[in-house]
Amino acid sequence: MKKLVVSENEIQEVCKYLGRKISKDLAHESKPPLLLVVLKGAVNFAIDLSKNITIPVFMDYIQISSYSGRKSTGDIKLIHNLRFDIKDRVVLVVEDVIDTGVSMDYLIHHLYANYQPKKVLVCAMFDKINARKTTVRVDYAGKILTENDFLVGYGLDYNEFERNIPYVYIPTEEEIAHFDELSKK
Ligand code: IMP
Ligand code: MG
């Protein structure tokens, strides 16, 4: 039995709720907001969330990297930058999980420092509120987690494994060892 954290059903309910709320909150923007999806982890969440957003929005992608195995390296690299013009536009950064907050802090500064957005908002499927090393405001949190467990599934990976799984669980040591074995193939 997997150590389930969130079921597929619950994820879909969260996406419906957040989609409705975001649609309502951003309905009166003069420029269509941009959903800026953080690759690769937030792709699964962004797809389900976007289907529940009923106002005109654009989508673009940005990629940074800081994780290796089960640990954040804290050393952030911008791998793929956005292409969209966000001047005077609301940007909703869509992320899988806010953990230490270091990645999101970097992204928010990157956007404000370089592109003059009207406002940068943050939407994350998971918010590990007790893991912060820096202050980040999460405007839309799907599910607040008080434990700092390492999670996989629904975009979240262990060395690229398990992004495709439709629910989220805590991998056991045996499961991690199994992925380590598979990595060698
Ligand atoms: P932060 O910079 O520590 O907030 O980390 C954010 C990034 O680390 C997320 O976008 C994820 O890609 C990754 N991450 C954080 N927690 C987990 C986890 O439990 N499983 C897999 N990836 C995680
Ligand atoms: Mg991520």
What are the main properties of this structure?
185 residues, single chain, binds magnesium ion, two-stranded antiparallel sheet, alpha/beta
Radius of gyration: 16 Å
Number of helices: 4
The averaged pLDDT comes out at 95
Question: How would you characterize the largest beta sheet?
Answer: 6 strands, mixed
- Uncertain spans: none
Q: What share of the residues does DSSP label as strand, in percent?
A: 25-35%
Bound molecules: inosinic acid, magnesium ion
Helicity range of the residues? Answer: 25-40%
Question: Which series of helices and strands comes N to C?
Answer: EHEHEEEHEEEH
Q: Kindly name the structural category.
A: alpha/beta
Dominant shape: globular
Multimeric status of the protein: single chain
Q: How many strand segments?
A: 8
How far the N terminus sits from the C terminus, by CA atoms, comes to 25 Å
Numbering strands along the chain, what is their spatial order in the largest sheet? 4-3-2-5-6-7
Overview of the structural elements:
This protein is α/β, with parallel strands linked by helices. The chain has 4 helices and 8 strands, in the order E-H-E-H-E-E-E-H-E-E-E-H. The chain has helices spanning 8-25, 43-51, 102-115, 173-183, and strands spanning 3-6, 34-39, 58-68, 71-80, 90-98, 119-128, 140-145, 168-170. The strands form 2 sheets. Strands 4-3-2-5-6-7 form a 6-stranded mixed sheet, sandwiched between helices. Helix 1 (8-25) packs across helix 2 (43-51). The longest helix is centred in the N-terminal third of the chain and has 18 residues, at 8-25. Bound molecules: inosinic acid and magnesium ion.
